Amino acid sequence: MAMTETRPAQAAPDFEVRLARSEEELRASQRLRYEVFAEELGATGPMVDHAARLERDRFDPVFDHMLVFDRARSVVPEEQVVGVYRLLPGERIAETGGFYGDGEYDLSVLKSSGRKLLELGRSCLHRDYRGGAAMFHLWTQLAAYTLEQEIEILFGTASFHGTDLQQLAAPLSLLHHRHLAPEDLRVRTLPQFHHTLDRMPEAEIDKPAAMREVPALIKAYLRLGGHVGDGAFVDREFNTTDVFLVLDVARMNARQRAIYTKGL
Fold it and tell me: pLDDT of 139-189, one tens digit each?
């Protein structure tokens, strides 16, 4: 059995954030995705390779994969990857036949906008790095990427754990009433998959309690000035309920923009 040297729990992390440069780094990102989506959240299906402990799909070779490394975590490079975000600039969809989200959402309002698009997905952090600095470093580099590529609209999905829509009624309804995208950005779930977010009247929602149920990634988009699309997608293979997130860079919250673009 190979021995690995892992940093003591109290040691400060040594973060590096950049795009994957090799097949080995891509596999490390797919391994982390497996740990989070399959082992923690119960995902299965054709995109999950349980034998190899990888979560991967046909889009991976075309996406850019932004990785968070903690160089202090281990001497084994694969074990240094503690965060992942995958990114697809709109001009690459000729290589894939479309965006990943085309299988769940009607993206025509964005595709016809004439603006530069970036699809984001598969965002996850190792359990030991949630609620800390890793996400800030990841989003700072995402901001740099967005500026470099001159992206105008960012979009993708984020998930609630579980598929019981009644149990998620309060947070989904809160998103609908308070954060629904304007018409020019309002992507809709495809009709055959559509589940309304508007599951209860706004007056009946315990808003602080409902917001506590909203995942951190969705809250981060909302703070930046992002919105949600019309409808939820129930992903039974991934054991999640997905909402569509869209962020117009021109409408970003100025204070939040300054936090992530400082020094860029």
Answer: 899 989 999 999 999 999 999 989 999 999 999 999 999 999 999 999 999
Q: How far is CA 36 from CA 41, 83, 192, 210, 250, in A?
A: 6, 10, 28, 24, 33
Q: What is the pTM of this model?
A: 0.89
Enumerate the domain spans of the chain: 86-261
Instruction: Please give the helix or strand (H or E) that residue 179 lies within, else none.
Output: helix 169-179
Residues 99 and 91 sit within 8 Å (Cβ to Cβ): no
Per DSSP, the residues of 101-159 read GGGTEE-HHHHTT-S-EEEEEEEEE-GGGTTSHHHHHHHHHHHHHHHHHT--EEEEEEE
- Do 262 and 67 touch, CB atoms closer than 8 A? no
DSSP string, 48-71: EETTTTEE--TTTTTSEEEEEEET
- Residue 201: helix, strand or coil by DSSP? coil
CATH of 86-261, one of 3.40.50, 3.10.450, 1.10.238, 3.40.630: 3.40.630
